[in-house]
Fold Hemoglobin subunit beta-1-like.
Amino acid sequence: MVVWTESELSIINSIFSSLDYEDIGPKALCRCLIVYPWTQRYFGGFGNLYNAAAIKSNPNIAAHGIKILHGLDRAVKNMDGIKETYAELSTLHSEKLHVDPDNFTLLGNCLTIEIAAKLGDGFTAETQGTFQKFMAVVVNALGKQYH
Ligand code: HNI
């Protein structure tokens, strides 16, 4: 089981309590779709993804970016049971959506960059280390139902 120190729990809570979901969610998903264009294949029904400008102004993508952050909220509220929390979401991404689990890491990288840009000097090495540990646990949990 993953062990969290008091300091790590406090860093994760502080990141998420100050996070503007409506800003960072869309930015993280847009960055992922632009930097790693093969991730666009899962969003064929979302409308125009023709270029970076189209992706950034696509309301369906923005809404989905916000939805993903709310998905991460579930982990923040269940830090000692992230695997169980994501069992159903993992099955959905695997069996129904057929999302390659490597993409979870790519999205996590983009989210890390957006949070770093937002926090500026506040994104210390300690903050980064804790956030990346959190995302690694989330990615692992989301990949659990793949076989
Ligand atoms: Ni993901 C649906 C959470 C990564 C493609 N995804 C969801 C939903 C949540 C969610 C919540 C809504 C489920 C429902 O309707 O019951 N996704 C997350 C989280 C991560 C993640 C927490 C990682 C941090 N998803 C990804 C990645 C891709 C992805 C990396 C593809 C590159 N997700 C999808 C698609 C859907 C989806 C596609 C369905 C969208 C729709 O509405 O049709």
Summary: The mean pLDDT is 96. Residues 39, 42-43, 67-68, 71-72, 89, 92-93, 97, 99, 103-104, 107-108, 138, 142 surround protoporphyrin IX containing NI(II) (CB under 6 Å). Residues 32 and 120 are 20 Å apart (CA to CA). The chain has one domain: 6-146.
